[in-house]
TrEMBL record:
The lineage of its organism: Bacteria, Pseudomonadati, Bacteroidota, Cytophagia, Cytophagales. The chain crosses the membrane at residues 44-66. Keywords: Membrane, Metal-binding, Transmembrane, Transmembrane helix. The keyword Transmembrane applies. The keyword Membrane applies. This is Nif3-like dinuclear metal center hexameric protein. It holds the Pfam family DUF34_NIF3. Belongs to the GTP cyclohydrolase I type 2/NIF3 family. It comes from the Bacteria. Gene3D superfamilies: NIF3 (NGG1p interacting factor 3)-like.
C-alpha cells in the first residue's frame, strides 16, 4: 500500500445537492477522474462513503449529517421531555435557555450539576457526554450576558473548552423550581431523610414530629450533607421543630416575611446578604425571639436537588445515560 506522508486537503462544494469532495494533491487526481468512479449516483455515494471512512481513520475532521442513531435524541427532544410535566411550560420568559451548542445536536450522554464549572465540562467530555444540564449560570451572572466578558481571559478559555468538546449547556433553574413539588426541595429533603414531613400546603415550612435541640438538628444536617461546618445564628440549646426552607439565594424580604408569618424555629438557608436576613435574625434573638438561622452556602443547599434531577431525568430518557457530576464547594475553610 502506498504511503502518503503529505496532508490531504478536502475542499467541499455542491453539485446537484450532493456534497462532492475534491482531493489534493495531484496523486489523488486519478481517483477523481476515474470513469468508473462516476458510473452512477449510487456508486458515487458509496465511494464517497469509503473515502469519508478513510478520513475518519486518518483522523481528519469530517462533518456528518444524517438521521439520528436509533436510541438517541436531540437536545430539543430531551428538553421537551423534561419540561412536559412542568406546570405552565413552556415559559415565555425564563433563564432556562440553551447557552451553548445546538438544539438539533444529537445527545450522547447527559450530565446534571449545580454550576457548569471548567472541571465539570472536562469530566463531561471524559465520560463521552455532550449535554450539561446545570441549575446555575454558566457565565457569572443570572442572565448569562457575555458582552461585558468579551475581553476576559477566563471567559474566552472556558468557551474554547466548551467548543473543543462540542458541549451543549442548558440551564435548568426556573422549570425545576416550578415543578410540583420543587425539584431542589425534594432532592434536599430526600438527602436529609425528611421527605415524609413535606406538606404541599406549606411547601416552605417543614414540621418535624418531635422538637429537638438546635445543636442536634445541626449535627444531623451536617452529617447528611457531608460537611464539617456551617454558619449559625442562634442558641444551640434551644428547642427546634419547625424549619423554614430557603435553599439557594432567597430574597431577604421574602425570608423576613416568612419569619413574621410562621415564626419558625430555624431558617435553613443557602445564602443571604449578611446585612439583611442575618441581622434581622440576630436582633430577633437578642429581643427574645426563637428563630435561628443556619447558612449552608448556595452550592451545597441545592446540589442534592440536581443529584435528584439526574435520577428524575433518567426516568424520562432511559435510552441515554444520565450522570450527576458535583461542582463542589468553591470555598476552603482555613
Amino acid at each position: 500500500m502506498t504511503n502518503y506522508p503529505e496532508i490531504i486537503l478536502i475542499r467541499i462544494f455542491k453539485i446537484n445537492s450532493l456534497t462532492f469532495f475534491k482531493f489534493t494533491p495531484s496523486y489523488m487526481e486519478p481517483i477523481r477522474k476515474n470513469k468508473e468512479f462516476n458510473t452512477n449516483r449510487r456508486d458515487f455515494i458509496w465511494k464517497i462513503s469509503c473515502l469519508i471512512g478513510s478520513a475518519y481513520t486518518l483522523n481528519f475532521p469530517v462533518f456528518a449529517y444524517g438521521k439520528l442513531s436509533k436510541n438517541r435524541k436531540t437536545v430539543k427532544q430531551v428538553i421537551d421531555l423534561i419540561i412536559e410535566d412542568i406546570p405552565g411550560a413552556p415559559f415565555t420568559r425564563t433563564v432556562d435557555q440553551l447557552r451553548t451548542g445546538s438544539l438539533d445536536q444529537e445527545v450522547t450522554g447527559i450530565v446534571t450539576t449545580m454550576f457548569p464549572t471548567v472541571d465539570v465540562i472536562r469530566k463531561t467530555a471524559e465520560i463521552g457526554s455532550n449535554l450539561i444540564i446545570a441549575h446555575e449560570t454558566l457565565f457569572y451572572n443570572h442572565q448569562d450576558e457575555t458582552e461585558w466578558l468579551e475581553e476576559d481571559e477566563v471567559y474566552q478559555r472556558k468557551l474554547e473548552l466548551i467548543h473543543k468538546h462540542n458541549i451543549a449547556i442548558w440551564r435548568f433553574h426556573d422549570y425545576w423550581h416550578r415543578r410540583q413539588p420543587d425539584g431542589i426541595a425534594e432532592g434536599n429533603l430526600k438527602k436529609l431523610g425528611w421527605e415524609k414531613y413535606f406538606n404541599p400546603s406549606t411547601p416552605r415550612l417543614l414540621t418535624l414530629p418531635e422538637p429537638q435541640k438546635l445543636e442536634d438538628l445541626v449535627s444531623h444536617i451536617k452529617e447528611r450533607f457531608g460537611i464539617q461546618q456551617a454558619r449559625l445564628v442562634g442558641n444551640r440549646v434551644q428547642e427546634c421543630q419547625t424549619i423554614y426552607l430557603a435553599f439557594g439565594a432567597i430574597d431577604s424580604r421574602m425570608i423576613i416575611a416568612g419569619i413574621q408569618e410562621y415564626k419558625p424555629d430555624l431558617i435553613l438557608s443557602g445564602e443571604t446578604r449578611e446585612w439583611e436576613t442575618v441581622e434581622r435574625v440576630r436582633d430577633g434573638q437578642l429581643l427574645g425571639e426563637k428563630t435561628a438561622l443556619m447558612i449552608l452556602g448556595h452550592e451545597l443547599s441545592e446540589a442534592a436537588g440536581m443529584e435528584f434531577a439526574a435520577e428524575w431525568i433518567q426516568g424520562k430518557t432511559p435510552e441515554i445515560k444520565v450522570s450527576y457530576i458535583p461542582s463542589g464547594e468553591a470555598y476552603q475553610f482555613v
